[in-house]
Amino acid sequence: MENRTVCHTLTVENPGSEELRFGIGFHPAFNIPFDRHHTTEDYEFRFDRPESPVILDARPHGLLSGKCYYKWKNAEKIQLTDDLFSNDSFCMAGLRTRTLGIYEKDSGRHIVCNVEDFPYKLIWSALAKPVRFVCIEPWHSLPSAETDPQEWSERAAAVCLAPGKSWSTTLSTTVMR
After folding, report:
1. What was the pLDDT predicted at 147?
2. Least C-beta-crowded within 10 Å: which of 10, 24, 108, 114?
3. Measured distance CA(128)–CA(22) in Å, rounded
4. Cα separation, 131 vs 111, whole angstroms
5. Which tens digit of pLDDT belongs to each residue from 70-83?
6. Maximum CA pair distance of the chain?
7. pTM of the full predicted structure?
8. Are the C-beta atoms of residues 21 and 154 closer than 8 Å to each other?
């Protein structure tokens, strides 16, 4: 059987003489439907265990509002609809899941991301009817807040990298299509 997993590694190096502040995450997008015989409602996002994610509100422009809420409680799946992302993405915190994937319900075909080492997981798609793609975005930092200052040096950072140091993260994605 051929290898169906792709690994992407991001490495940040600080060759400078001052601390480097940064936030980083992945933004992979996956076309749906997988074929012309399926529609948006034939797909669902799945966790590998029941989850009650804390949603960090980023409606409607992708910037954090400072509010949090629950949308799903003890859910193993999130049904995909053409309206799911009508108010933008869902930035989820507090997940214990090792994987998050998009599944075709009747065939079992899926694309799964290993997200266990990432503190934040986002799901998103551009507003379109029907939905043409979905993103599963594991992040080490948060989106900007509505109240963030313009200067990057004044914003919260996920990592503060000392001069001469490096930092890496890897996203593994398995495709069963």
Report:
1. 83
2. 108
3. 32
4. 16
5. 999 999 999 999 99
6. 56
7. 0.90
8. no
